[in-house]
Amino acid sequence: MNETINDLPIFSGISRDDIRDISANGFIKLYKNGEILLKEGGKNNQFHIILSGIVKVIKGDTEREKILGFLHSGDFYGEMSLILNKPHTASIIAKEDTQILVFLEDEFEKYFMMNTIIIRNLLARTAERLAQMDIEVINLAYLTIQNRLMNFIWFITDKGSKNTDIGLTHHELAQIIGTNRETITKMLNELRNNGVISINREKRFGILDKTPFEV
After folding, report:
1. pTM
2. Is the predicted pLDDT of residue 18 greater than 90, yes or no?
3. Of 53, 114, 147, 189, which residue is most buried, by most CB within 10 angstroms?
């Protein structure tokens, strides 16, 4: 576990002794697949770092949910609520069994906000998220549903270089792309029947033919 914490991107540039001192002020929580870690509109005054597992970020109620993205091992969340002293703007739900390193508000202020190296790491990751959100806004405004779906598959397979490390249902894909499940099912079947993508039993994607994605 110590090795996992030492390798967290948020601690990049920090000595192992300092990482040990900081992490000793947190505590570990375990969540089962499907459990709610944070609720949109709530405020728990905690900062979370994912040690293992995958969570999904969701906006809206159960009838009009929009999946904003997924966070993996090494990612963090809850910092904006603490910094701005506002409720959470989205819900966080475990996509699989997940292990979280948790810091309360006082520890976050003392060990994270007072460390210039950690602040830089926080800002770098936040900037990456904002850049991805800009791309999503452009995609929703200008691309067709099929192009949005293909762009998403291209992105999560790292430009076709690997199979996805997360299984996605057709319903989840519809929530991400902004359409209905039936449309997603039809498009995925076409892509698979044409030998463009593969989908295994765990609902993980792979790209078999990069040509349609590179047009």
Report:
1. 0.85
2. yes
3. 53
